[in-house]
Amino acid sequence: MSTVSLFFQIKSRQLAFFVRGFLSQEIPYTELDLYFWDTMEEWSQIKKAKQQAYEETEHVFWHVLHQIHYWPQEVLLKDPFLRGEIETCLDCLENQGKYPLPLDCIGIRP
Prior knowledge:
Blueprint: H1 3-23, H2 29-44, H3 58-70, H4 73-78, H5 80-94
Helix pairs in contact: 1-2, 1-3, 1-5, 3-5
């Protein structure tokens, strides 16, 4: 298994855990924000990642990561459309692609 594959296998589960915890108000936004920055730092340390093909659910992963960083805490908690989109993406990540890939998740690598 490549370093990139292992990264996404681990980080996808973590992302789903943190975002679901935040949406259910069991994890504070500050923890979610720390997870974002930790993930970005870890990604920057992966060598030759940009030359490798995207993993099946990688676009979904980057899309969710962008959404939680882009939108303010209140919007993430209260916008029903955004929450539904994020929850669909999390279902996909938790099932590692066995759940249908959302069509509008166009996340790209930083």
